[in-house]
Amino acid sequence: MRKFKEFIIEKLILISGIASIFFVVLIFLFLLKEGLSVFNTVSPFNFLFGKSWYPISEPPQLGILPLILGSLLVTLGAAIISIPIGVGCAVYIAEVAPGKIKETLKAGIELLAAIPSVVLGFIGMVTLVPLVKNIFHLPTGLTALSGSIMLAFMAMPTIVSIAEDALYSVPKTYKEGALALGATHWQTIWRIMLPAASSGILAAIMLGIGRVIGETMAVMMITGNAAVIPNSILAPVRTLTATIAAEMGEAVVGSEHYFALFAVGIVLFVISFIVNVTADLFLHKKQ
Amino acid sequence: MVKFEINDLNIWFDSTQALKDVSMQILPNEVLSVIGPSNSGKTTFLRMLNRMNDLNPNFRMSGNVMFEKEDIMKIDVELLRRKIGMVFALPLPLPLSIFDNVAYGVRMHGLTDKTRMAEKVREALRQGYLWDEVKDRLTESAFKLSGGQQQRLCIARTLAVEPEVILFDEPCSGLDPISTAKVEDAMVKLKEKYTIILVTNNVKQAARVGDRTAFFLNGELVELDKTDKIFTAPRDKRTDGYIRGKFG
Amino acid sequence: MKRNPHRTQNIAFFFLLVAMLLIVVPVSLIVVIIIQKGLPAINWQFLSDVPRQGMRAGGIFPAIVGTIYLVTGAIIFALPIGLLAAIYLSEYSKDNPLNRIIKLAIVNLAGVPSVVYGLFGLALFVVFFKFGASILSGSLTLGIMILPIIITTSREALESVPQSFREVSLSLGASKWQTIRHIVLPNAIPGILTGTILGLGRAAGETAPILFTVAAFYLPQLPKSIFDQAMALPYHLYVISTQVPNVDEKIRYGTAFVLLALVLFMNLVAIIIRYKFRKKKKW
Question: What CATH number is given for B4-243 in this structure?
Answer without folding.
Answer: 3.40.50.300
